[in-house]
Design a protein that fits this description.
Blueprint (H helix, E strand, L loop, with lengths): L9 E2 H7 L4 H10 L1 H5 L1 E5 L6 E5 L2 H11 L7 H12 L6 H11 L3 H5 L3 H14 L5 H15 L2 H11 L17
Antiparallel strand pairs: 1-3, 2-3
Helix pairs in contact: 1-5, 5-8, 8-9, 9-10
Length: about 180
């Protein structure tokens, strides 16, 4: 989807959930479509036993993003696709969490293209959808409030609340207790 432009690996379960297609049906499409004419590739999501999908290259990614956005300069189609992908992250599986971290923590420059409010909506949706508390997501939401929304008071309040949010149990690194 829209995340292809970032060359992110989308876990199959997230993709299946986002497009309301059972994994078995995806497997059949994948097999019959011969990996969609070599435009998409499957590979293992690092550190998991989960397969993911990635586009062949940036050209393929850019074409897909153009189709998703309806050829306009607006990024509304991309935001809608990201929202659907985030809604698919309704499992505590590490691959789902890594997808959220990639989108919301490691790709902030990409998120800025959508505007401050749309970015905040993505953070809020991720925190609401992911079934476990996650201090990293909460911390970076607070940073988004401060740096992108420009609301220092709300950011401070959010950071204070973040202190009470548990670390994701399988996080590769922990957010500090003090900010």
């Amino acid at each position: 989807g829209a995340t292809s432009s970032m060359q992110v690996l989308i876990p199959l379960e997230v993709l299946s959930s986002a497009i309301s297609l059972e994994l078995g049906s995806w497997r059949q499409i994948w097999t019959e479509g011969r990996a969609l004419w070599s435009l998409l590739y499957e590979e293992l999501v690092e550190g998991t036993q989960t397969l993911g999908i990635r586009t062949r290259n940036q050209v393929v990614s850019d074409v897909l993003v153009g189709i998703i956005n309806g050829g306009s300069e607006s990024h509304a189609g991309e935001v809608d696709c990201l929202k659907e992908a985030i809604k698919g992250c309704d499992s505590s599986n590490p691959a789902y969490r890594e997808f959220l971290i990639y989108i919301l923590v490691r790709s902030k420059s990409y998120l800025r293209r959508f505007g401050a409010t749309a970015g905040l909506e993505l953070y809020d949706l991720a925190i609401k959808t992911f079934p476990l508390p996650d201090r990293t997501l909460s911390h970076h939401r607070a940073l988004w409030l401060k740096n992108e929304i420009g609301d220092s008071k709300e950011a401070y309040r959010a950071l204070e609340e973040t202190r009470n949010v548990q670390q994701y149990p399988l996080a590769k690194s922990a957010e500090p207790d003090e900010y």
